[in-house]
Write a structure and sequence with these properties.
42% of the residues lie in helices and 18% in strands. The longest helix is centred in the first third of the chain and has 24 residues. Helix 1 runs parallel beside helix 2 and helix 3 runs parallel beside helix 5. The chain contains 15 helices and twelve strands. It has a nine-stranded mixed sheet, with helices on both faces. The protein has two domains: 251 residues, Alpha-Beta Barrel (TIM Barrel); 74 residues, Arc Repressor Mutant, subunit A (Orthogonal Bundle). It is of the alpha/beta class. The structure holds iron/sulfur cluster.
């Protein structure tokens, strides 16, 4: 079954580290955009059926931007459109939100429409750090958001944290973890800040008070341990969950399963092909034209994405590639010995999986392990 992703490209300001596609939007533009997405969902279901791909999905994810800025009624309409055209049985339906004191009505509306998971952009439990990140909310508002979500009926809640941000210390990062633990959410995503070219942070990168590489590594490892201590087990480089609360939608990306993404900047992997929409709201509203991005689901990609997961890869992961998969696994198993000894890979043979220490050097490690 497919995963569905709808990109909601509206934000009420731009955070200085952000390179996602988002912009301010008038109500009339939001309405036009919702209609365009409704139309695209219908067109894509028809197109896929013609190509022999059943238009059936079991996850729907509203990402952004700031999806709550679209309003509860429009999100509800899009959930209904997805249900109508893609069946969506027993689906995980996630909506990303940014903390605010005014989300009670929004939560009631989307919960009634079938949304059952929220991903809340907390980033830090310290207002000074939030300010440095250009965020437009406080930690108190994040706690109120969690409370309002629970009152509306949501129990599957995730909080986003950022690590190695300007002014953050090891102690303040750990107290942000404590804040999440006290709120009792079953899922946390903890991302290391990456200063991306083209962002205001990039232009100021030499003067930003950022931790050095060693401090960043210590912080990541301490946060991984603290989250596990709080009962949230690491299942991906940046993701931690109580058992059964892993993000079903995001697991599709890492397990190389297929998904359809709609909206400017959204990526897809459907029927063996990857494609994406250009980062232009104007073009998407006028005439959405996906750009081809080659074949997906190759052996290399399966290894690359699978190694992001704590479960790693086994011979079974590469079974769809037959003899080539068997040979690739055997070659990687052989190359992995010194990294197991160094504590970068888990020790159990027959299974290649990184430890948190390994995740810190995942790109280099994957490059070493990948078969020629
Ligand atoms: S709220 Fe999120 S998507 Fe919007 S600018 Fe900030 S980081 Fe980017």
């Amino acid at each position: 079954m497919l995963g569905l992703y709808l990109h909601i490209p509206f934000c009420d300001g731009k955070c200085p580290y952000c390179d996602f596609y988002s912009l301010a939007g008038e109500e009339s533009v939001k309405e036009e955009y919702t209609r365009r997405l409704e139309k695209e969902l219908a067109l894509w279901a028809e197109k896929l059926a013609k190509e022999g791909v059943p238009p059936v999905a079991d996850t729907l994810y509203f990402g952004g931007g700031t999806p709550n800025l679209l309003g509860g009624n429009r999100i509800a309409r899009l959930i209904l459109a997805a249900k109508e055209h893609f069946s969506l049985q027993n689906a995980e339906i996630t909506v990303e939100v940014n903390p605010s004191s005014e989300l009670s009505g929004f939560f009631r509306e989307i919960f009634a429409a079938g949304a059952n998971r929220l991903s809340i952009g907390l980033q830090s439990a310290h207002d000074k750090e939030l300010k440095a990140l250009g965020r437009r909310h406080t930690a108190q508002q994040a706690a109120e958001t969690v409370e309002a979500a629970r009152k509306a009926g949501f129990s599957n809640l995730s909080l986003d944290l950022m690590l190695a941000t300007p002014g953050q210390t090891l102690e303040s990062a750990l107290s942000s973890v404590q804040f999440c633990a006290e709120l009792g959410v079953p899922h946390v995503s903890a991302y290391l800040l990456k200063v991306e070219p083209g962002t205001p942070y990039w232009n100021r990168r030499d003067s930003l008070p950022l931790p050095d590489e060693d401090e960043t590594a210590d912080r990541y490892l301490a946060v991984c341990a603290a989250l596990e201590q709080a009962g949230l087990m690491q299942y991906e480089i940046s993701n931690f969950a109580a058992p059964g609360f892993e993000s079903r939608h995001n697991l599709k990306y890492w397990r190389c399963e297929e998904y359809l993404g709609l909206g400017p900047g959204a990526h897809s992997f459907v029927n063996g092909k990857r494609f994406y929409y250009p980062r232009s709201l104007h073009d998407f509203l006028e005439s959405p034209q996906p750009i081809e991005d080659g074949d997906g689901g190759t052996l290399e990609e399966t290894v690359l994405l699978g190694l992001r997961l704590s479960e790693g890869i086994t011979p079974q992961t590469l079974a769809p590639f037959g003899k080539a998969g068997e040979q690739a696994f055997a070659a990687m198993e052989k190359k992995s010995r010194p990294y197991r000894a160094a504590g970068l890979l888990k020790p159990e043979p027959g299974h290649i999986a990184m430890t948190p220490k390994g995740f810190l050097v995942s790109n280099e490690l994957i490059a070493e392990l990948l078969p020629e």
